[in-house]
Amino acid sequence: MFNFKDISQLGSLLKEAMQVRQKIETLKEELAKEIVEGESGGGMVKIRMNGKFEVLNITISDEVFSEGMADKSLLEALILSAFNVTSEKVRLLAKEKMKEIAGSLEIPGLMD
Fold this sequence. Notes:
There is one protein chain. The chain is rod-shaped, with a radius of gyration of 22 Å. The relative contact order is 0.15. 54% of the residues lie in helices and 16% in strands. The chain is built from two helices and three strands; from the N terminus they run H-E-E-E-H. The protein has helices spanning 4-33, 72-102; strands at residues 35-40, 45-50, 55-60. It starts with a helix and ends in a 10-residue tail after the last helix. It is an alpha+beta fold. It has one domain: Nucleoid-associated protein YbaB-like domain (Ybab, Chain: A, 2-Layer Sandwich), CATH 3.30.1310.10.
C-alpha cells in the first residue's frame, strides 16, 4: 500500500538537501576569498594560496641565493615543501568550514 507519510519525509529530505547545497555554494565563494600562507626552510620560501587551492604568490628569500646556497634541487625541495604545507592548511580550513555547515549530517567521505 502507498504511504503518504513517506512522501512528506522525502520532501523534507529534499528540502534539506537543497539547503545544504546552497550552503556549500556559499562556502565555495567564501573560500575563494580566504588567503592562506605556508612556508618552508624557516621562511626561505613562502606560498600564498586561496581557498580554491590557487597559488597567488611565491616568495623566495634572497637568503636562498646568497653564499652559493641555491642549487636547483634545494630550491625545488623548498618550493615543493612550502606548497604541500600551504595546501594542507587550505584543506584543513575547508574541512573546518564544511563541518560548520554539515553540522550533524553524517555524509561518508564528504571531506576526506
